[in-house]
Amino acid sequence: MSDTITTDTADSADAEAEPRNALGTGLGRQLKLLSLWHLVGAAVSVVGILLARRGGDIELPWMPRYALQGFFSFAFVAHMASAYGIGARARWVRPLSLAVNYLLTLVAAAATLHLFNAFRALGDLGEGLYKAFIPFGVICVGLLWVLLSGQMLTNRPTAVGPQRLRTAGWSVAGLASVWFVLKADPSGLILSIGDSLTRPLALGAIALTVGAALATRLMWSRAAAKHFGSTRATDEALSGLAFLSPNLLGFLIFFAFPLLFSLWVSFFDWDTTNTTRDFIGLENYIRALSIDFAHSSQSNSGTEVLKGGYQVLANLDWFGQHWVIGARDVEFWLSLKNIMVFLLLAVPLAVLPALVLSSVLASKLPGMKIFRTIYFIPSVAGVIGVAIVWGQMFDATIGWINYLLDLLGVSEAGQGQGWLTQPDTALLAMVIVFAWMSFGFNTVLYLAGHQAIPKELYEAAEIDGANTWQIFRRITVPQLRNTTFYVVITTSILALQLFDIVWILARPIAGGPNFATQTPVLTLYQEAFTNNRQGYASSLAWVLFIIIFSFTSFQFRRQRDEATSGGVS
Amino acid sequence: MLLPDDVDVSDESLPLFTFPDSSTRFALVDNDISVAEFRPLDDIDRIIRLDVSSGDKTGDVVTIDGDEEDVFAIEVDGTTIEAYRSRLTSGGRFVSLDDPADERVELVNLVEPVQQFGPRLENFEEVLIDKNLGRSLTNTVLVTIVVVSGQIVTSILGGYAFARIKFKGRGPLFLLYLGSVMVPFVVLIIPLFQLMLQVGWLDNLSALIIPFMFSAYGTFLMRQFFISIPVEIEEAALLDNASRWKILWRIMVPLARPAIATLATFGFLYAWNSFFWPLVIINSGNPDGRVLSLALSTLGGRSSTDLNLVFAGAMIAMTPPILVFLFAQRYFVENSASSGLK
Question: Which residue of A lies nearest to B132 if distances are taken between CA atoms?
Fold first, then answer.
């Protein structure tokens, strides 16, 4: 990495002109080699396309197949053009050659790692780490030691003690590393590497990686930049892209592509194993969102009054009139209803106490910092652990909540409420857990908001003889308007994606009892991974995305308005 | 937690129980033994449970509800009575702690376990080794370390490029990065799952690591920090002919330590606590691929019985993020707070 991105500015001091001319003849030879490499690269690209297309047992799944074919097609054209351009000393050849060689390096390196089973070996690394956890701990301690002594060194650069400490830290870490390797026993790994080394494809991938890396390095050099008359702006752009490239490639592969792919899949009848894949247009969306209202002469009518394929979602009685609401996907609509109820209950419960508590904590009492820390902990502790603890508390027979209610005389011993098993309280229990987890975080956000309120406002109010409630109502709340907005929106976005808490707490199955805690994300998960309807699940994801996006864009628009109107930045 | 109080009887820790007619405690010395249920002929509603080998057939036969049953002579409280054997079942053998001669056979679910509050450190050992949570713990550690280091490196590089190096398309690209923060992860689950399936990373830690080594949020964070560093510092170094690579690592990164600490904290909490994605990816029965959150949800799921172990597991899962938060809270709280105002 460091070699490929070392240098840029081509037009540095002219005093170096003499040696560069001498280097020029060497460069000429190297560039001839580079042209040759590009011709080889073009040939390799053709082989690559053919290899990617091959069928039978070793047929690649379609995603890597298309990706490799696309890449090698590009590489073929780019290699041919580069081979020509180097001879013609064209200005455009350097970026093109760099791009194709750099990408080829990465693709070939990834292929090498894949052929050497390095990615699957990550799982074995977990095994090794388990076997050698104690040496690993010692390595960590050693590195921490180095870090701390480094900190001491920056404070007192000449001190001898910290320097010795640092050396000692390094040696501890080094010795522990040897111990780690012995304990983790990498013999299996070494054997499998030796095994792969005999395969021609693996050797070819290594050769390609090294060749492309060398070609990239040569083209990147200052001499080559000078030779092809690279401008300063081009140089800067190239180094910018080089710095960004690892990040950008990850962004494209693991964000941009999946996002578009998800949209595409949502127009298909598509199952997990790819045996079915029919384009059905908007049918998934229509199915998800279809809803039917029917008037009925009697209460509690069933599907008979609805259109075919619809199931009863709800029965309504309005002023003696009976209405039936039906939907094609009742589960999804139920989950939408649940999440709206959840949102309406959980957001106020997560925000209002935070607002009040932050006002108490904002007063400069001693020990404030400790409270800040304590309130923050629920939101960092991890939802699974927290939900499990709450699950015990909500338990009907051994739960603490029923036990407390017994003590208070609210309920009879042994006759406690089955919080999680009753449809009317299950969602409420989730609301409580969610609010508990987010309210501390919100409190801290509010505390930050408090710091931005001008102290003069409070002083003036006190002089006017306002009482605590008036101050809170007339100064604190309006002044915290922006924070409240932000807190409400972010909490809502989190609430709309409720999944983990339900997964742990719902009984007897996720979404239960009787769909009382069915949430959109849970429906999506079940459709995609239980019913294997990935196309339909993708359309649900996009419906959910649009709902969430309406909240997010609200927030973004407001932020932009504030930024342009010179609000809080 | 309510725990059966364990005592050491011949170097083995045994669960304790009480019988309604005795004030002393009994240790369950033998579980799952065959138990015979006898009913005395003079009081056939009474049930006497004894070891299956006890009682001798007298040779007589008695008819109960139309069935012929052998009559046994059994010894109860020193007297011999006649009874028939109504069924065979399995139960436990209990020995009184005060009087080793007082030995009883009873169904385990019919006696009251002795419950007592008390610390029991063995829970951690049990949950880590017997319940295989140790393996999940190391997986989580591995995933977290690689994800956090990867995010730091890619975010530093990307953030620096966005902050300081001019290239075509930088503005729109950065807007794309910003916009990506608005996309909820659920939209990406299915396509990412397909991608992992096709690359062959299903059920593998790679799927938990590689896609998460890149963070748009982290890039944004680092970019904001780099922009706040005065350009003059860098320009001086550029004039000295230092490469951008050197400037970044020698000058910018040491200055950016607070931002890196923030990024590392967020990355740690995210990677350590993530649940949905591992649930999707590590879905086969292979417990060796599990991460901590997943193993914990299986252990503490709806049908869990060993609450003490579940809670020990929850403690193990919750302690590291809390510790990291305590150490890094300065960065963490400040950053969460300032994002609330931006």
Answer: A130
Residue A4 pLDDT > 60, yes or no? no
**How do the domains of chain B map onto residue ranges?**
16-117, 130-339
A283 CA to centre of own chain: 29
Higher pLDDT, B189 or B128: B189
Can you give the pLDDT at residue A259?
A: 94
Confidence band, pLDDT 50/70/90 cuts, at residue A29:
confident
Q: Are the CB atoms for B133 and B313 separated by under 8 Å?
A: yes
Of residues B300 and B51, more confidence is placed in: B51
CA A5 to the chain's CA centroid = 28
Mean pLDDT of A452-468: 87
As a whole number of angstroms, the distance between CA B297 and CA A329 comes to: 29
How close B92 comes to chain A (CA, Å)?
A: 25
Cβ-based contacts of A243 with chain B (< 8 Å): 157-158, 160-161, 165, 244, 248
User: What letter would DSSP give residue A411?
Assistant: S
Helix, strand, coil fractions of chain A, as percent rounded to 5: 75, 5, 20
Q: Find, in chain B, the residue whose alpha carbon is nearest to that of A542.
A: B187
Q: How many residues are present in chain A?
A: 569
Q: Which of B134, B165, B296 sits opposite A130 (nearest CB)?
A: B134
DSSP A160-184: HHHHHHHHHHHHHHHHHHHHHHHHH
Q: Kindly report the nearest CA distance between residue A270 and chain B, in angstroms.
A: 11
- What does the pLDDT look like over A133-172, one tens digit per residue? 888 888 888 888 888 887 777 777 777 777 888 888 889 8
Number of residues in chain B: 342
Whole-angstrom distance, CA of residue B298 vs CA of residue B303: 9
Q: Which ranges constitute the DSSP H helices of B117-200?
A: 122-125, 133-164, 170-180, 186-199
The model's pLDDT over A251-281, given as tens digits with 9 standing for 90+, comes to 999 999 999 999 999 998 888 766 778 888 8
Comparing B75 with B227, the larger pLDDT belongs to B227
Tell me what the pLDDT averaged over chain B comes to. Answer: 82
Instruction: Answer whether A165's CB lies under 8 Å from A152's CB.
Output: yes
pLDDT of residue B284: 67
* Cβ–Cβ gap B204/A237 under 8 Å: no
Q: CATH topology for B130-339?
A: MetI-like fold (1.10.3720)
Taking CB atoms within 8 Å and a gap of at least 24, the contacts of B49-55 are B49/B91, B49/B105, B49/B106, B49/B107, B50/B74, B50/B105, B51/B93, B51/B105, B52/B88, B55/B83, B55/B85
Cα separation values, A418 from A410, A433, A502, A508, B126, Å: 14, 16, 16, 12, 30
Residue-averaged pLDDT of chain A: 83
Task: Report CB contact under 8 Å: B182, A127.
Answer: no
Would the CB atoms of A133 and B138 count as touching at under 8 Å?
yes
Cβ neighbours of A549 (radius 10 Å): 17
Contact A466, A496 (CB under 8 A): no
Q: What is the 3-state secondary structure (H, E, C) of B284-318?
A: CCCHHHCCHHHHHHHHCCCCCCCHHHHHHHHHHHH
Record the tokens describing residue A36, joined without a space: 């040759």
Give per-residue burial for A182-195: e unless 16+ CB within 10 Å, then b.
Answer: ebbebeebeebeee
Determine the residue of chain A that is closest to B336 in CA distance: A445
Least CB–CB distance from B190: residue in A63, A123, A534: A534
CB spacing of B341 vs A448 below 8 angstroms: yes
- Kindly identify which residue of chain B lies nearest to residue A245, measuring between CA atoms: B158
Cβ of B216 and A251 within 8 Å?
yes
Tokens representing A547 are: 């709902």
The residue-averaged pLDDT of A181-185 equals 80
Q: b or e along B289-316 (b: 16 or more beta carbons within 10 Å of the residue's beta carbon)?
A: bbbbbbbbbbbbeeebebbbbbbbbbeb
Shortest distance between the Cα of A423 and any Cα of chain B, in A, equals 16
